[in-house]
Each structure stands twice: as structure tokens, then as C-alpha cells.
Give the backbone structure.
Amino acid sequence: MTVISVNSGAASNRFDAIFAAVIASCADFCAGARQGRDIEGRYHELARRSTSDLDRLGLTRPDIAQAALNGQRN
């Protein structure tokens, strides 16, 4: 039987740092995905509106993508 042991806390600290970096990267990815879904929702919400509704908002059809990206909903 093979036994592997670590006598130093350095390996544990290194593992903790790597694990924390992986978790932070996953959290950043999830936040970006959530933000992308929010933009998508705003885009579809604005795209469904009539031209007169968009006029009331001061938008034209070509402005919808930028408005969705900037966070405009209504």
C-alpha cells in the first residue's frame, strides 16, 4: 500500500489558493451569464414593442440593441 503524506502546510495553502481562484472564476462566469440573460430579456422586451411604443421611448428599431445593452427597459 502506498501512503502519501504532506508534512508542510504549504501544499494545503497552495490548494486553498487554487480552489479560491477556481471558485472566483466560476462566480465571475455565472455573473456574466446572468448579465447576458438580462440583456437578452431587455432586447426581446423592446423588440416586441410597436413602432409607436418605441417612438414614445425615443427609440427606433436600430436603437434597440444599444438600449438593451445600456439597461433601458421602458
User: Anything to note?
Assistant: DSSP finds three helices and no strands in the chain. Residues 50 and 67 are 15 Å apart (CA to CA).
